[in-house]
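Course assignment 3, question 2. Fill in each field.
Student: A.L.
Task: Predict the tertiary structure for the chain below.
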Amino acid sequence: MSLEWNQDNEETKAALAEKAEEIRLNQGERASEIFGGKVEIAPVKKIFGESAQLFSDIIKEQLGAEGGNYKMADFGSHKGELLENILKSLPEFNFHTIGIDLENNLKENKAAQEKISADLGNIPMEDKSVDVGFARYVLHWNSPEEQKQILKEIARIVKDFAIVQHVGADNENPTQWRGRVDDLLDGKEIPKLERHGHFFSSSQEVEKILIENNIPFEKVLEVRVENLSETLSQRFSLDEKEKQLAKEMLKGNDYIMQTTWIIKPRDNA
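Answer field:
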């Protein structure tokens, strides 16, 4: 009896793990369009549409407007939507591009010349093997410990700098904000939004990780983006009833904080 129960229990765990992975890979019906900055609705444009120009401006400022030959890594590349837009904005540069993500997300990536299938917390690349890198919105789909590992890996791999853009809780009351978002993303009320394994760190919580791990950083921009429910509605194709329910569930927390940092190689690397 005990052996049968244990076997059933393991099978249940495996099924739940498979379901969680399926949900995690579910980026939303309009994800690629949104990631590529093609949606003009205000909150979506602010969160996704302006990244490419901001990142391009930072790269020019850091590497020099005259351009040059560099290796560039896109951490969490997906289908290369952001990478493609950055390359269009920087024609004076000759980049060897590397897309890093889970295998399923890389299949349709045409912007990366080289593709590496890997968990971002354990990337099979040598120290300081790329000149510059960037990561947009990868931290919050991971636990705090995983976020620490991802930031350490990025800082280990880049030689000059990396741009990290994050969306998360505000610094004033992160626990309350996360509670509202967690209730929304558990999928009980709106199945399309079911996600697991996430942790929306505040900018102060991310910076604490950076400081504790001797990773130099500079905060470039931090803004509050209103109408998180609208962004989720567009990305996951919510109908009007689902959209209104999402807004009601978030109550006074229908926003998200967007923060962008430049991080440098670790001081002890």
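Instructor remarks: Residues 13 and 72 are 39 Å apart (CA to CA). The radius of gyration is 19 Å.
Grade: pending
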